[in-house]
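pls design
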């Protein structure tokens, strides 16, 4: 993939909506602040899975549009393709919205 890849929303529109941008910013903020931070082992395993995935492109997931470097650091987040699951951090409950992209699946 080239660095000029345009991200597609589910409705086929290639331009990000304001909501997409806000949800992405929430995910980056959670990762930066360490909210529900995943352990280093989990982050490394998730990163390895993302690097091998055909949807990973230039640090973003083409499936959900998230920045993978941020998404993999949030414990309550999961891969939209099912390549890695959400984990529970002791003393916290998994969020229903994960990183904010709205495309996560709840762990069983």
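designed seq:
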């Amino acid at each position: 993939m080239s660095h000029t890849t345009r991200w597609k929303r589910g409705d086929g529109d290639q331009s990000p909506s304001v909501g997409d941008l806000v949800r992405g910013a929430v995910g980056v903020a959670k990762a930066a602040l360490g909210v529900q931070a995943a352990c280093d082992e989990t982050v490394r395993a998730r990163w390895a899975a993302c690097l091998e995935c055909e949807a990973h492109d230039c640090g973003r997931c083409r499936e959900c549009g998230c920045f993978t470097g941020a998404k993999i650091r949030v414990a309550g987040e999961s891969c939209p393709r099912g390549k890695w699951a959400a984990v529970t951090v002791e003393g916290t409950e998994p969020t229903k919205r994960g990183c904010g992209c709205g495309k996560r699946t709840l762990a069983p």
